Amino acid sequence: MVWQEYISSDPAVMYGKPVIKGTRIPVDLILEKLGSGETTSDLLLAYPNISMEAISACLYFASESIKNELFSTVS
């Protein structure tokens, strides 16, 4: 998966937050909805202009973003 094909960050769009290319749908919104129990089918119905690949790219982007982060403790 090459998430760069689906995710972009532009200061002129959503203040530079990572979004699904060609939309104003932020990656963090997709992650939040998946984390709260919505399914990919729910998201595809709610946002018909995104694809399953774009949803997968959001997950891959998140994984790559925190891969090398170190956390002292989790409370």
Q: What do you see in this structure?
A:
A two-stranded antiparallel sheet has the order 1-2. The chain has one domain: Arc Repressor Mutant, subunit A (Orthogonal Bundle), CATH 1.10.10.10. The mean pLDDT is 95. The N and C termini lie far apart (32 Å). The protein is globular. Helix 1 crosses helix 3 (52-66). It has helices at 27-35, 40-46, 52-66, and strands at residues 7-8, 19-20. The chain is mostly helical.
Order of helices and strands: EEHHH
What is the C-level CATH assignment?
Mainly Alpha
> How many structural domains can be distinguished in the coordinates?
1
Number of strands: 2
The CATH architecture comes to Orthogonal Bundle
Strand-residue proportion: 5-15%
Enumerate how many helices there are, as a single number: 3
Termini separation: 32 Å
Largest pleated sheet: 2 strands, antiparallel
Mean pLDDT: 95
Structural class: mainly alpha
> Major sheet: order of its strands?
1-2
- CATH homology superfamily: Winged helix-like DNA-binding domain superfamily/Winged helix DNA-binding domain
As for the CATH topology, it is Arc Repressor Mutant, subunit A
Write the layout of secondary structure elements.
Blueprint: E1 7-8, E2 19-20, H1 27-35, H2 40-46, H3 52-66
Helix pairs in contact: 1-3
Q: Key features?
A:
75 residues; Arc Repressor Mutant, subunit A; 41% helix; single chain; 3 helices; mainly alpha
Short description:
The protein is mostly helical and 75 residues long. Helix content is 41%, strand content 5%.
